[in-house]
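Before going further, learn to read the protein records used in this course. The integers have meaning only within a learned vocabulary of local backbone shapes. The record below shows the convention in full.
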Amino acid sequence: CGSLISLVCKRNGEPNALLSGLTPGEIYFVRVYSLNSTNHTYEFCVQTLPPPPANIDCATATVLTSEPLPACGTPVTGTTEGLVLAQPATACSQQGEGMFVWYSFQATYSTHVAQVSDVTQRYGPGNCWVELYEGSDCGTLKELGCYPYSTFVNWVFLKNLTVGATYYLRFGSPVSSAHSFQICLGHYPQPLNDDCVGALPLT
């Protein structure tokens, strides 16, 4: 006890702490204390992370199918909980690295809408974000956009897409953080009168 090293310090009300880099079999100590001669009662627990989701790589991306809005198709439950290996992040995330899960879709319209809803902070600080990539080869993807959650809040408009091309969405959380969410893909049905030959008569 005379040579302990502090690894993390958390205040009441802050998000749960992710304790990474621990050595199996090693004994760790947790100190809980009150400030200014006050007393508190509390509950304390230590949990292990769940297994990581299957779509942590581009090659294992979960396929999204687009449905006409406003239904937006069947929502897919996603999470970055359980991830421990960080990957480089894009500039809009304001993070050097992040924890990511992947989704893919084939564009059937030039504009699609990704709905990211029910976002819940599982542990750690920081907001999530979504990145858009184009390409059929995971090794040569081209980044087309990056959308911090604070700027889109539920709806991400994906414009100027090439019909028939494959696109990837990467959902990111800051390192040592995790979010759960729902994601689905939608599109606006093409109106019948979007061309002169399909003009609707007015009376």
Notes: Residues 56 and 182 are 16 Å apart (CA to CA).
